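Subgroup meeting minutes
Present: P.N., E.W., G.H.
Scribe: E.W.

1. P.N. recapped why we're keeping a running log of single-chain structure predictions: easier to compare across weeks, and new members can see raw inputs and outputs side by side.
2. G.H. added today's entry (550 aa).
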Amino acid sequence: MLSSLFISNLALIKNCEIDFKKGFNVILGQSGAGKSILIDALSFVLGAKADKTLIRSKENTMRVEAVFDHLSESIKETLTSLDIEFEDELILSRTLNLDGKSTIRVNGVPVVLKTLKEITLNLIDFCGQHDNVGLINENNHLSLLDRFIGDKAYSLLEEISKECDNLAEIEKEIKSLGGNETERNRLKEILSFQIQEIENANLQEGEEEELKERFKFISASENICEKVGGAVSKLDEGVNAVTNGLFEAKNLLSSFSEFQDIAECQERLNSAYYEIKDVAEVLEGIVKNTDFDESELERIDNRLDLIKSLKKKYGADITEILKFLQDAKERLDNLENSEFMINKLDAKKEKCLQNLNQLCSKLSTLRKENALILEDKIKLELNDLQMKGTNFKVQFDKSEIGRKGFDAVKFIFSANAGQEMKDLSKTASGGELSRLLLAFKGIMLDKENVATVVFDEIDSGISGQTAGKVAEKLGKIAEFVQVICITHTPVVASKGDEFILVSKKNENGETVSNAKVIEGEEVVEQIARLIDGNENVSSTALDHAKKLLA
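Output recorded in log:
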């Protein structure tokens, strides 16, 4: 349960620390004092969406810290699985800066928001007047019934979900084999065309690169012949050829072989002569073998266009195209032999559908049995809440089989005996919805593993003797779980075990809210204010408040 809450720079609160007790904690204060800030703070530290607008004006950071004790086994197991140490105490701390950055710690260990939500999933149950909207929404009624049933329903829902996964997998396999006969024949035609188109191309690995190089060479052949032929002429043709000059030069030096330096130069000229002769011969061979062939150039160009076209259809390169060909052949082969496989899968699908239908029927029977129990319990609760003659029923209809079964459920209601039962949204008033919500909450407490329930003006729209019954109901709930209740109803407030007053005042031109635990005469005065409605309460209101508290 929640033992303490520390708030810093959140909305109108500067710094505030509140201790909570086991039992019935009542939050009092005038409208606009900031009671809802406590709910915002709790929601924030438990993992609600961070809202920068909640940061107090002129401040950069807000911080909330909540301490919980008497931890449930499920919370302990979660903390252990996350390697977070604890000694029967859970300390949650969360900050938010104006730049949107948030820091979260659990028992001093930094965690991410997802982990925080996992830890706090069953710490506190919030129940407010606006939750009436969820109650009248038919989309929530089936899940509320399943929550009432508990583990038996969830176990069947898990089996149904697994069977739905199996069905989806089978249908996927059938689809991969072409689906029905018409679809298979169409797919076979497409695959046959694709296979033939690729095979007719007779592609070879590395072919495209070779073709591009050859295309580039042939395109440049005219230029090659002209330039390389010119180089050959300069090196080894005519009177002024380089080889002629070298030959004459080395011969002129040959008669001075007795001089070492001249002899070395003559030897180098001799080497240069034979090297250049060799270069000239190679270049001459290139000229002889280089022939500009326009027909070959066109053939290569067409081949490259074909490869480009195939790449657009089947892959980024020839390797991928050939892989596509292999896969297409396998798919076609599977299709050719798919009749046996599809018959086998159809039988498997039929069996899966039978299992699914059986599970859904079993769940539907369970729901209908428990719906009768829920109806009786809700009517009993509402009877305790001054709604005698009320009728409440869980209406069933059938929908398509899915992960939630094949039941469509909605709650119908009439507030008076003999009155036609209608949808909640069409017949229940605000006060009636509040009592319905409280009835559901009372019934569900033993189904949900929570230690703290927050009621935010659940008694809105309720007065007189009915308010007294609501107060009794909240008091009973507080015997089993910690209750934190924001209320403006005197009789509800008087049931408290601890009282927290939220007030606001002006400090140096700034509005500041604060919360503190009050006792004794302060409690009497605050409840008297709820009765009287004036700041200066009458003696009659004070006497009434004392009687309520007594």
